[in-house]
Write a structure and sequence with these properties.
Number of strands: 19
Strand content: 25-35%
Strand order of the largest sheet: 7-11-12-19-18-17-14-13
CATH architecture of the largest domain: 2-Layer Sandwich
Distance between the termini: 48 Å
Largest sheet: 8 strands, mixed
Helix content: 25-40%
CATH superfamily of the largest domain: Bira Bifunctional Protein, Domain 2
Structural class: alpha+beta
Shape: elongated
Radius of gyration: 26 Å
CATH topology of the largest domain: BirA Bifunctional Protein, domain 2
RNA sequence: UCCUCGAUAGCUCAAUGGGCAGAGCACCCGGCUGUUAACCGGGGGGUUACUGGUUCGAGUCCAGUUCGAGGAGCCA
């Protein structure tokens, strides 16, 4: 009998070991048998490969074990790697001819089968669902997206600054926040780190924060989570035009990093790569005024009464999701909409000098109806104007004292944006629902598991 | 908060006009040397979400409750 070398190999790299023995430590994803053959699909976190147990190659006890092993049992297998076009897997085309099999734990009956399941059931079993191929692929893409964001920012001179998650008051005054007890005071979970980053730029020039943010909105749609991850770059000496260039560079870098590094994952997801390959700067730019005109045009063209109703809009209103969807379907790249009415945006956005009713703001809308993935703006740099805006909106002036201070000691034009990680992942993966783009989603009716 | 839809075996679903609660998958047993959600034969498995009502009889009809999903609004 041949002595098999023991070495740890990961499934993703099997192609490098054809003709050689390998040891894989993983879990049994699925199994089927045919007489003297047992086909096992084995996962190890990096991929899935087929392991074939042939009765003549192993002792009787090993064959019997393979034949009876329940789904999701943990196991260590050793055998020779073969290239075989019949072999399924991620990546496919390689399999292991099993010589030895060690069961680490024989699993109990596993609730999630390779058959179909309902959303409610899967969400209740999210802790197990993440093992399924599709979820595995999505979450690996998410990890790439987050890594690409850091890589791009770090290599372009941005300094990562952690901003507080426990905050004393509403940062923007626009959204509902989660209230938590803070000794004898009340605190709120952060909805943004932006205001703190505006302090950070005066120390570091270009900064970003990257972490979870919280919104207590009772949103009940496929685009919303109550806890989601956002990266927020903030740049000193930066106007809106410059900001848009930064955004399109970064988003393009993220997309192309995923295209390069997650080929297997995109294949599992059935994502059409041609929808992503042309995502390169520049992205189209339209103004809010132009967007309103386009939406009205689309509204006039449709015969669907319900759609006509949903697309109804007048100048001054913020976009609803039907408007965003209709707009983005006109383009095959992410779309910048600039110059929103100041009244529908946050208090700190710089108005246009010749037209103060609109502000230097820009949303980036992902194509294929995925909607807003970035909100950004140039910030007000004049302390007097900022104070006026705070007063006009009825915000607690005292809470913003430090923020106004920033404009008194070397104020400069500056801009920043926030990119929602899960929305970006949902778009890049071409998937239906944002809840699959984060390991353990928090939505209005879900806090378990 | 509003609108729509749903809850039956572990899972996905079916059950004619109110008349014996069923199938596929999963699980267990048997067969097969290339399965791709294998296939073939056999087996066990039910508080029909909950509460009440109508009826000789309710999974089915009525009222309420709970939980969930999709959408709107809100928001990124």
């Amino acid at each position: 009998m041949r002595i098999l070398a023991r070495m740890d190999t990961i499934i993703r790299d099997l192609h490098r070991h054809v003709g050689h023995p390998v040891t894989i430590k993983g879990w049994l994803y699925n199994r089927t048998d045919k007489g003297k053959l047992v086909f096992m699909q084995v996962r190890d976190g990096s991929g899935i490969c087929q392991a074939v147990v042939f009765k003549r190659d192993v002792d009787e006890a090993t064959f019997e074990t393979a034949l009876r092993l329940p789904q999701e049992s943990s196991l260590i297998i050793t055998g020779e790697v073969r290239a075989d076009p019949r072999a399924p897997g991620v990546p496919s085309g390689f399999e292991i001819g099993v010589r030895s099999l060690q069961v680490v734990q024989r699993a109990e009956e596993y609730p999630i089968t390779p058959k179909e399941h309902g959303v409610d059931f899967l969400m209740d079993h999210r802790h197990l669902w993440i093992r399924s191929t599709r979820q595995w692929a999505l979450l690996r893409v998410r990890a790439t997206v987050m890594r690409a964001i850091r890589q791009w920012l770090d290599s372009n001179g941005y300094v990562e600054m952690s901003t507080p998650i426990l905050t004393p008051s509403a940062a923007e005054g626009t959204t509902n926040l989660f209230e938590v007890g803070y000794f004898d005071q009340k605190a709120y979970l952060a909805q943004t780190g932006q205001l703190y980053n505006e302090a950070n730029i005066f120390a570091f020039g270009k900064v970003y924060c990257f972490g979870p943010t919280f919104r207590a909105e009772k949103s009940k749609t496929r685009r919303h989570l109550t806890e989601f991850w956002m990266v927020e770059p903030e740049i000193a000496y930066c106007d809106l035009e410059h900001l848009l260039e930064i955004e399109e560079q970064m988003v393009s870098y993220i997309v192309h990093t995923v295209l390069t590094e997650n080929q297997n994952e995109l294949k599992v997801l059935g994502r059409d790569r041609s929808k992503l390959e042309h995502i390169t700067p520049p992205f189209p730019r339209i103004t809010y005024d132009e967007a309103i005109a386009k939406i009205k045009e689309l509204q006039a063209q449709t015969d669907d009464e319900e759609q006509k109703q949903l697309l109804d809009i007048t100048w001054g209103m913020d976009f609803g999701s039907p408007h965003e969807t209709a707009l983005t379907q006109l383009y095959d790249k992410p779309l910048f909409v600039t110059g929103f009415p100041s009244a529908v945006k946050a208090f700190y956005m710089e108005p246009y000098p010749d037209r103060p009713e609109v502000c230097k703001s820009a949303d980036l809308l992902a194509p294929e109806g995925y909607g807003e993935i970035i909100g950004g703006s140039e910030r007000i740099s004049d302390p007097e104007l900022l104070l006026k805006r705070i007063r006009d909106q009825g915000l607690p002036e005292e809470a913003y004292r430090w923020y106004i201070d920033l404009r008194k000691f070397g104020s400069v034009p500056h801009s920043g944006f926030g990119l929602g990680v899960e929305r970006t992942v949902t778009w890049i993966c071409g998937t239906e629902h944002i809840r699959e783009a984060i390991p353990f989603p928090r939505t209005i009716y879900r806090l378990y598991p």
